[in-house]
Amino acid sequence: MKIFYKLMLIVCLISGIISQAQNYPQNYFRNPLNIPMQLAANFGAIRSNHFHMGLDLRTNSQENLSVLASADGYVSRIKVERYGFGNAVYITHPNGYTTVYAHLNTYFDALDAYVKERQYKDEKWEQDITFQPGQFPVTKGQLIALSGNTGGSAGPHLHFEIRDTKTEECLNPLLFGFAIPDSVSPIISGLYWYDRRFSTYEPGANGVIVKKTGNSYTADVVKVSSPMISFGIKAVDKANRGFNLGIYQAVLLMDGQRIYSFSIDKVSYDDTRYENGCIDYTKFARDKMSVQHLSVLPGMKLQNYSIPGLSGIINLQDNEVHNIEIILKDVRGNTSRLVTKVQLIGTESSVNPTGNIVKPNEGKTISTQNADISFSKNAVYDAVNFNVNEKPDADSDVISNIISIHNHYVPVHDNYTVKIRPNRKFDQNEKDQVILLFDYGSDKDAVKGKWNGDKVEGQFNRLGTVKLVLDKSLPSVSPGWKEGGLINSSSLRLKGSTKVGDIVSFRAEMDGKWLRFARVKNDFVYVFDEKCPKGSGAHTLKITTSNTAGNTNTQTFTFQR
């Protein structure tokens, strides 16, 4: 009888996938490339502080492949930005959906000319332009752009999304019937359990060895020392081409009863950061490992992800052995199962919290002698036993103690406010040059300080150490050519540099007129065009930059063309 119910559950789950796909038009959208669709990443894959919101389509490690409109519609928006999507096109379709194509090199000729004209008119490279339906209509299969590697891209590919035009929610494109071969089931490589009496962050994950037997996975009896636990699963999906993809759907059963499930069908950009409450963030940040919780953390409020009422929290009321089954599936219905058992073998003491506990759904301010750290009620996904302290810094540019705010292995959901009292007084010019420098462990961030009484204020959305820095340095750019030299290459490149923070403002003028330089990571690149043709002679280039502190520098270079 148990086998019958398990089979019925699997049939119902696969039927649910088919039903979900039938909610969306099948085969309405075409492949946006002229080569077969091959996935480098799928919808819902785990990324830093967000779910992957579309498909990453392989372009065979090449740039400038033709990108085609997936269906009839009109160009409703374009973006040009340093990070993020880089160059992107949005096409709105008459059936209520919008497709997005990102990391492009160039747009089709008429659109590219329009964007360039707008950039010169605004004297601004970064753009976010919306269009009316009649301006740039497109037909299915029409060339709209050339693929590239712009923005926050680590290699040539096309990022492709399908959104609900009205709600702007991103939808799982694999539910729309694209012909992408996939006969490979998800691969399970780890199982973890968590003591849920206090928080998943303390004491953290307890590893369980997973064994593969044929097409199934097993683990020995999981013996736990807490009567309240939850599980997490380390797994990847595999398309036929072998890339590691995100898990589409998971179900957790105890003694044959479903106690938790999730599926990744749609997510909005407003909610995508809730990913940090769906994974073991500590393992992701520290070990670069994706472990997805098979339970709901108390501060995780992502809609349409898990079934209401199924928390995944297991309350063990006895010392009996209980059956555990985990079922993972991809959109095609390829299924993997892990079967194990769980038993309470005694109760060890739980975490002893201190007074600095930040809980989900409760705001709190924690203070040290010279700092205040204020969290909103949405700050954390699970309880955090906060460790906050301060200590001196010997660097001559540092003008405060270093404030340690717990550690960067615990996430926060939204911006929290840090106020720090400097260790000396300043005149007004110096006050304008104060920044907050945050160290996250793997990288740093600097923000312009805002004075609030005798303290300097800034906002951040990660934990780590922060200090006040007086930055009197000037930003600069270095030319990639010899001063006054003849340029025969296709572009001019300037390398940006700052002592602290970033170059937040850049302006180039050639012979007194604004010139369109693109921002490529920390470099600034001008591709020669009709503004500076070959044989045009000697030119003077004036570059004005400003850094995070607001310090401005003007440099002049010459070259011949």
Automatic annotation (TrEMBL):
Entries under InterPro entries matching the protein: Cell_wall_metabolism_enzyme (IPR050570), Dup_hybrid_motif (IPR011055), M23ase_b-sheet_dom (IPR016047)
Signal peptide: 1-21
GO terms, molecular function: metalloendopeptidase activity
Domain of life per record: Bacteria
Domain M23ase beta-sheet core: start-end pairs: 51-108, 131-166
Keywords: Signal
Pfam families: Peptidase_M23
Protein name, as recorded: M23 family peptidase
Taxonomic source organism: Chryseobacterium phosphatilyticum
